[in-house]
Design brief:
The complex is a heterodimer of chains A (561) and B (49). Chain A is built from 21 helices and no strands. Chain A is mostly helical. Chain A is globular, with a radius of gyration of 25 Å. The termini of chain A are far apart. Chain B contains two helices and no strands. Chain B is rod-shaped, with a radius of gyration of 18 Å. The chains are: A mainly alpha (561), B mainly alpha (49). Chains A and B meet through helix 5, helix 9 and helix 12 of A and helix 1 and helix 2 of B.
C-alpha cells in the first residue's frame, strides 16, 4: 500500500470517528444514550438502518459471489421494500406509542415478563455471536490479502468501534453510520467507474454487459419453484419478506436505529427510504463483481484468488502440479480470449450465437482448470480455506486499482465493518440493560446509573465479540452455526410479535408453548431437509401463529367443558 | 394498545409526511419501484442474453 492509501485510510476513519464522538459528547440520560434523544432526521435514520445491515462481508463477498454466480443474489432483497411498508404501518406507531427503549419491552405490556425475556435472550444469543463474526470475517480476508497480522486487524476494527460506541451511545452510532454509508456508496460507485475505465479501450459498458450476459452473469431472476433452490423470485419475495419483517421489525439492532427518530413520520420515511434504495445499492455492488468478471475475461486472472493459500500449497509436494495447472490455465485462457474476440466481432445473429457457444465452452474449460487447482490445494493443505470467492474483489483492488483508490476501498470495508458492529454493540447493551438489568436486577436506580451500566455492557459485549473474532478461526463449525442461527430464530420471534400486535385474547403461556414448538419444527426442518433457509422464516412465523391459535381454542373449549 | 389511541398517534404525526405526498402515495411509490426494478432485471437479461 502506498503512503497516499494510508493517508486516505487513516485520515477518513479518524475524521468519521472524531466527528461522531464530538457531535455526541455528554449523553448522560438514558433517552439520549439508548435512543439518541429522539433527534434524528429521516435521512440519518435511513442511512443508519442501511449501514447497520451492510457489513464488510457485503462489500467483500458480494462482488465475488457475482463473479461466480452472477446477479441472482439480488432476489434475496425483493421482499425488503414490502416489509418496510408493513413495519411503517404496524410496528413503528406501536413502538413509539409505548415509548419503549427495546422492541422486547413491548412484549411485556402485551404478554408477560417471561415472553419478553425469552425473546430478548434469543436476540442476545444470536446477535452476540454474530457481532464476533462481523469483526472476524473481514479481518481474515483483509489480513490475508494485505499481509497484516490477523489479530491486530481484529483489534483495529473492534477497539475503534468500542471506544466511540461506549462514549456516544446510540447517537454516536447513527451519526457515524451516516458518514460511513455515504462513503460506502461513493466508494462503490467510484470502483464501478474505475473498473470500466480499466477495461480495454474498445470495450464499452454495452460490450462488457454483452460479454457478461452471454456468460449468464446477468441472469438475476430465477422463476424455479423448487424450494431447495436458495435464491428464486418466490423465495426472495415471500421468504425475503418474512426475513426482512423479522430483521427490521423485531431485531433490536435495527429497531434502535429508527426509535431514535424525532417523530413517527421521520422514522417511517427513513425506513421507506431504505426500502427504495436497498435494491439499487445491492445491484450496484453485484454489478461491480460482474464488471470484475468481465475485466478478467480480457486479463489473465490468478488460477486461485487466495494467494496466501496458493503460496502455502506451493511449499508442499504439490508445487509441480500447481505450476503445471498455472501453465494450463494460461493456455486455456489464451484460447478463451480468442473466442471472446470472435464473439465481440460477430455482426449477425448466427455468428453471434456460434461465438457465444464457443466462448461458453472456453470459459468452462478454464473453470475446470481452476477447479482442479482448488482440489489440488485442498489435498496439499488440508486446513486451507479453498473457497476463494471472498478474495476475488480485494485481490482485484490490490492488483489493479490506482493509488488512493485502494485506500478508499479499504475505508469502505472498514466503515462497513465498524458501522455493523457499532449497531450490534449498542443494541446488545440496550437489551441487556433494559430487558434484564433494569427489569430484574436493579429496578430503582437513577438514569445516570443505567447510562453507566449501558456503557459497561457495551464495552463487555465489545470485548466478547473481539475475543470471539480472535479465536473464531479455531471454531470453524461454530462459525457456520452462527451464520444460520439468525434464520432459525427470526420466524419464531416474528410470530410472537405478530400475535402481540394483532390478537387480544391469546395468553402468554399459550404463545410461549407455541413458540417452543414452532422452534422445534424449524430446527427439525433444518436438520432433515435441504429447503432454502429463507423459507425457515415463513414456516417459523406461520407455525407460531397457527399453534398459538390452536392451543388457545383447545384450552378455551376445555375450560368451558 | 387501543385502536383509538393508535389512530390518535397517527393523526398527530401525519404532518411529518413529505408535504407533497400522502402516506398511501409513498407506499405505492415503494411497491412500484420494486415492480420497476424486477422488470429492469428481466429486461437486462433479455437485452444482453
Amino acid at each position: 500500500m502506498s503512503n497516499l492509501d494510508w493517508i486516505v485510510l487513516c485520515g477518513t476513519l479518524a475524521a468519521i470517528v472524531g466527528f461522531g464522538v464530538w457531535r455526541t459528547r455528554g449523553a448522560h440520560d438514558m433517552s439520549r444514550y439508548l435512543r439518541g434523544g429522539n433527534q434524528e432526521s429521516w435521512l440519518t435514520i435511513g442511512l443508519s438502518v442501511m449501514a447497520t445491515q451492510a457489513s464488510a462481508v457485503t462489500f467483500l463477498s458480494m462482488p465475488g459471489q457475482a463473479y461466480q454466480d452472477g446477479m441472482r443474489f439480488i432476489q434475496f432483497y425483493f421482499g425488503l421494500p414490502l416489509a418496510t411498508i408493513v413495519i411503517s404501518i404496524v410496528f413503528i406507531p406501536r413502538y413509539f406509542q409505548a415509548r419503549v427503549f427495546t422492541a422486547y419491552e413491548f412484549l411485556e405490556a402485551r404478554f408477560d415478563r417471561k415472553t419478553r425475556q425469552l425473546t430478548a435472550f434469543l436476540f442476545l444469543l444470536q446477535r452476540g455471536l454474530s457481532a464476533g463474526i462481523t469483526i472476524y470475517a473481514p479481518s481474515i480476508i483483509v489480513s490475508s490479502v494485505l499481509g497484516w497480522p490477523f489479530r491486530l486487524t481484529c483489534l483495529c476494527i473492534g477497539a475503534i468501534v468500542i471506544v466511540y460506541t461506549v462514549v456516544g451511545g446510540a447517537r454516536a452510532v447513527s451519526q457515524t453510520q451516516k458518514q460511513q454509508m455515504v462513503i460506502m456508496l461513493a466508494g462503490m460507485a467510484a470502483a464501478f467507474v474505475v473498473i470500466v475505465w480499466r477495461l480495454p479501450a474498445d470495450v464499452t459498458v454495452g460490450k462488457a454487459l454483452r460479454v457478461a450476459g452471454a456468460l449468464g452473469k446477468l441472469d438475476a431472476l430465477d422463476f424455479s419453484t423448487n424450494p431447495n433452490t436458495r435464491y428464486t423470485l418466490w423465495s426472495g419475495l415471500l421468504g425475503g419478506f418474512f426475513l426482512s419483517l423479522a430483521y427490521f421489525g423485531t431485531d433490536q439492532s435495527q429497531v434502535q436505529r429508527y426509535l431514535g427518530a424525532r417523530s413517527i413520520g421521520q422514522s417511517r420515511v427513513g425506513l421507506l427510504f431504505n426500502g427504495l434504495l436497498k435494491i439499487p445499492m445491492q445491484a450496484l455492488i453485484l454489478l461491480v463483481g460482474v464488471m470484475v468478471f468481465v475485466f478478467y475475461q480480457f486479463n489473465l486472472p490468478p488460477v486461485f484468488f487466495n494467494q496466501a493459500e496458493l503460496t502455502r500449497a506451493k511449499q508442499t509436494v504439490a508445487a509441480p502440479t500447481i505450476e503445471r495447472l498455472e501453465e494450463e490455465h494460461a493456455g486455456t485462457f489464451a484460447k478463451q480470449r480468442v473466442a471472446l474476440e470472435r464473439f465481440l466481432r460477430a455482426t449477425d445473429a448466427t455468428d453471434r450465437a456460434a461465438g457465444r457457444r464457443d466462448l461458453q465452452r472456453a470459459v468452462e474449460r478454464t473453470a475446470t482448470v481452476r477447479e482442479e487447482a482448488r482440489r489440488t490445494i485442498a489435498a496439499a493443505v488440508p486446513d486451507a480455506n479453498t473457497k476463494d470467492s471472498d478474495y476475488i474483489f480485494l485481490s482485484f483492488v490490490m492488483a489493479n486499482l490506482p493509488r488512493g483508490m485502494i485506500g478508499l476501498l479499504l475505508v469502505v470495508i472498514f466503515c462497513a465493518a465498524m458501522s455493523a458492529v457499532a449497531g450490534e454493540l449498542s443494541a446488545l447493551a440496550s437489551t441487556t440493560v433494559v430487558d434484564f438489568y433494569r427489569r430484574s436486577i436493579r429496578p430503582q436506580a437513577s438514569d445516570a446509573h443505567y447510562v453507566r451500566a449501558a456503557q459497561v455492557f457495551t464495552a463487555l459485549w465489545g470485548a466478547l465479540a473481539l475475543a470471539f473474532a480472535v479465536f473464531a478461526s479455531l471454531l470453524d463449525n461454530l462459525i457456520q452455526a452462527v451464520n444460520i442461527l439468525g434464520s432459525l430464530f427470526y420466524g419464531t420471534i416474528l410470530g410472537i410479535f405478530l400475535l402481540a400486535f394483532f390478537t387480544r385474547r391469546l395468553g402468554a403461556n399459550v404463545v410461549c408453548i407455541a413458540a417452543v414448538l414452532a422452534e422445534a419444527i424449524v430446527i427439525a426442518m433444518f436438520g432433515a431437509t435441504k429447503i432454502s433457509f429463507l423459507w425457515y422464516n415463513v414456516v417459523g412465523c406461520m407455525a407460531v401463529v397457527a399453534l398459538a391459535t390452536l392451543l388457545h381454542r383447545v384450552t378455551t373449549s376445555a375450560g368451558r367443558a | 394498545m387501543r385502536d383509538s389511541a393508535l389512530e390518535k398517534t397517527l393523526e398527530n404525526t401525519l404532518d411529518d409526511r413529505p408535504p407533497f405526498l400522502t402516506w398511501r402515495t409513498l407506499y405505492i411509490v415503494v411497491v412500484l419501484s420494486l415492480v420497476v426494478e424486477i422488470a429492469a432485471f428481466a429486461a437486462l437479461r433479455w437485452i444482453y442474453r
